[in-house]
């Protein structure tokens, strides 16, 4: 199993957000069924698509039904897009009264290609709940925004990533102090898509150094602590 496979978020609790109220909203959509479709917006790399994926996976797991990838991308928007969404929805085996869940990434591109169609779909198909993301919320008309729960997802600060980074390091056998982890993250860009790669680089570099220093064997944790300015 690769480093990414071991540490990719597996539940909404593994996600990192700058705003606790955003985390609470994501958790609510993962554990309950709010009536409004959800729209996550914000700059690229804030974890919007990952959050939507985990919401859907959590809902399927709670219902005890088979999950699949029910995602469409706005970049592929064309005349048959909403027929495709309805076909995907019909594949989901929910209890009566529960709508199917469909993710639309880059919903702004759907609006570019099919103006007004998303709003009409929401109004006409209550049996389908859309969970959408966009980097450009201003491209969506107010009439569509008003029909969705719009949540801005801001980029977390490096300090927000410390608990998650510390958990990953511990899982890799490196129990680094909290202050040490904060130091290690000083050069991290804050982009959620780069986080796992960044952590893998830190762990691999420490393991290689530990292997090379065979005359005085040291733990990965001690090397990482020293690299971050802590006690070796």
Automatic annotation (TrEMBL):
One GO-annotated biological process of the protein: DNA repair
AAA+ ATPase domain: residues covered: 34-159
SMART domains in alphabetical order: AAA
Species per Swiss-Prot/TrEMBL record: Nereida ignava
Highest taxon in the source lineage: Bacteria
PANTHER family referenced in this protein's UniProt entry, alphabetically: REPLICATION FACTOR C / DNA POLYMERASE III GAMMA-TAU SUBUNIT, REPLICATION FACTOR C SUBUNIT 5
Protein name: Clamp loader, small subunit
GO molecular function: ATP binding; ATP hydrolysis activity; DNA clamp loader activity
Coiled coil stretches, renumbered: none
One Pfam family of this chain: AAA
SUPFAM superfamilies from the UniProt entry: P-loop containing nucleoside triphosphate hydrolases
């Amino acid at each position: 199993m690769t480093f990414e496979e071991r540490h990719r978020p597996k539940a909404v609790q593994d996600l990192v957000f700058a705003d606790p109220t955003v985390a609470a909203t994501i958790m609510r959509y993962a554990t309950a069924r709010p009536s409004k479709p959800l729209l996550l917006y914000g700059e690229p790399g804030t974890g919007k698509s990952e959050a939507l994926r985990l919401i859907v996976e959590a809902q399927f797991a709670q219902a005890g039904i088979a999950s699949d990838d029910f995602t469409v991308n706005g970049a592929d928007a064309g005349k048959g897009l909403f027929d495709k969404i309805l076909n995907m929805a019909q594949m989901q085996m929910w209890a009566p009264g529960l709508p199917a869940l469909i993710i639309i990434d880059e919903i702004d591109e759907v609006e570019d290609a099919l103006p007004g169609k998303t709003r009409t779909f929401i109004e006409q198909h209550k049996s389908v709940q859309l969970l959408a993301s966009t980097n450009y919320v201003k491209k969506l008309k107010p009439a569509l925004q008003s029909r969705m729960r719009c949540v801005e997802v801001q980029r977390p600060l490096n300090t927000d990533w410390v608990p998650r980074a510390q958990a990953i390091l511990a899982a890799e056998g490196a129990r680094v102090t909290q202050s040490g982890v904060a130091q290690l993250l000083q050069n991290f860009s804050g982009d959620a898509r780069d986080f796992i790669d960044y952590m893998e680089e830190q762990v691999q570099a420490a393991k290689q150094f530990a292997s090379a220093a065979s005359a005085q064997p040291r733990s990965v944790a001690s090397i990482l602590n020293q690299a971050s300015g802590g006690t070796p």
